[in-house]
Amino acid sequence: MEPLAKRLVDILALDNLWLKEVVVVTKEKQSSEVQTVNNYLKMSHQYLLVYEKVERDHRNEHT
């Protein structure tokens, strides 16, 4: 099993973009318990991937 956020980062990897942060967005006052509707999982959060544009030569400075 592979985390979805990691898989997305791997798929979207570009030479001049560096993943700066992953923001998890949820609705206000939402229970942290798993919610189901008709035995299907309900979407409880979304990801916002924030990238920084970097010069190709400077990418190695971030590792």
UniProtKB/TrEMBL annotation:
Record protein name field: Uncharacterized protein
